[in-house]
Amino acid sequence: MTDPDSGRRPKYQRIADELRTAIQAGTFAPGDRLPGENDLMSTYDVARMTARQALSVLRNEGLAEARKGAGVFVRSFRPLRRRGIPRLAHGHWGSGRSVWSADVAEDRALVVDQIEVTTAPAGARVARVLGLSCPDEPVCVRSRRFVLDDRPVLLSVSYLPAALVEGTAIMEPDTGPGGTYARLAELGRRPVHFREEIRSRMPTAEESDRLALEFGTPVILIGRTAVTEQGVAVELNEMTLDSASYVLEYDFDA
Amino acid sequence: MTDPDSGRRPKYQRIADELRTAIQAGTFAPGDRLPGENDLMSTYDVARMTARQALSVLRNEGLAEARKGAGVFVRSFRPLRRRGIPRLAHGHWGSGRSVWSADVAEDRALVVDQIEVTTAPAGARVARVLGLSCPDEPVCVRSRRFVLDDRPVLLSVSYLPAALVEGTAIMEPDTGPGGTYARLAELGRRPVHFREEIRSRMPTAEESDRLALEFGTPVILIGRTAVTEQGVAVELNEMTLDSASYVLEYDFDA
DNA sequence: CAGTGGTCTAGACCACTGA
DNA sequence: CAGTGGTCTAGACCACTGA
């Protein structure tokens, strides 16, 4: 009854198409429950695996999410706006505010719920970026997870030369007002230039776990290098963002 | 023999784990053939659907790609570097070069293989960005696909007020030296400020088709607004990038 | 405790690839 | 033409959710 041209397109695709159309038409609103495996099995007279395959198409597209034991639901998307350039302006962190505070409206709070500060050998990649002479040289590794409204949205791992930050607040969990950049400035290494590199890919199992990601949700990777007036890289910050939670914004002149 | 703690983790995940480890260890190099469905069925003594599920984990992570009738292969990733800020500097397109030419090394060519220029009603979203008084106002729509080494990497749709660009080269497939921005400058609407917004998500079926994307490959969306000295938005350019083909770079000062 | 999604089996048939 | 991945069935059992 639904397919005059049932010819070439696989069953599971046709079922996914119908559900997708219904979602876009508003028949199912964000948060609504979709027909589940059992519903599709009887409605379309297909096997469980075929019904699952149809639903997994929508999950891979980021349109639906499954909650075990409860059902399959239409996803919603209300992103944070991360303004790449003003958040790193000296006037912002120089006045004692956190770089991260720029990303959220004042009525919401982006908080760190996991933090780990260690010292470890740099490794080849980090040594190259920070201009260390040898991959075994120690670096300070600041690893954090940020949570918004109880939802993890971002992982951040920051690398700084251990020789530079040894014994400073940068080695403490709480780096104090203005954060790492304010402390670097006090050490005479104020960052004046930044480079951000952006990629996107599907998460690893560990990332998916730590960010509590749904199936079809990619991560955005940002690698930022902070450079001093003398052209020396003093920090590499590698961030992993839940792509369903973020829009990045860059403003600049021609 | 492979699982002392076979307890909680599903079979398909354990198989995927082993393959992933082997890929990361270099046992399988980029382009190599991986064990296929039939191999996994006999090696691990599982049903076809379970072997498929294991392979689909790796495909979703972007680590492997299936070629029907041939096998499953390790994917490779060699991205283009898109330098967000210098490519839009007036000195670049002002001297007659294309904005896009900045994205590739001189020995490779990023070429347009599909182009369509039409006029259509703006619609609510575009009208809002371009500051049009009514969503029915006509806009010039320039839709292009870019190909690198025969591989489609980017879709671009550009919107400009029809009242402004009517009868100019901007309505032609070839906009001439320096492209749209050089023509806007000649009209007294030189863009001096840009805003780029970046998101990432899984592709729609159409995007997946036009960019010839593999299973677990997200797209990166860039929405750029070009603004004149007078603060008027003259262009909205919406781009859809194959995330496996691009790294974005933004350089700026504190 | 009824219903849900998650995992898994042992088969079948198909279109496609590449030697 | 042998081998491959893609689709599909008709069952089964499990852990989890929420009334």
Automatic annotation (TrEMBL), chains A, B:
UniProt xrefs under PROSITE patterns: HTH_GNTR
- Where in the numbering of this chain does the HTH gntR-type domain appear? 9-77
**PANTHER family xref list:** GNTR-FAMILY TRANSCRIPTIONAL REGULATOR, MANNOSYL-D-GLYCERATE TRANSPORT/METABOLISM SYSTEM REPRESSOR MNGR-RELATED
Its lineage reads: Bacteria, Bacillati, Actinomycetota, Actinomycetes, Kitasatosporales
Q: Name one Pfam family in it.
A: UTRA
Q: What is this protein called?
A: GntR family transcriptional regulator
Q: Which Gene3D superfamilies match?
A: Chorismate lyase-like, Winged helix-like DNA-binding domain superfamily/Winged helix DNA-binding domain
Q: Which CDD domains match?
A: WHTH_GntR
Q: Which UniProt keywords apply?
A: DNA-binding, Transcription, Transcription regulation
Give the domain of life.
Bacteria
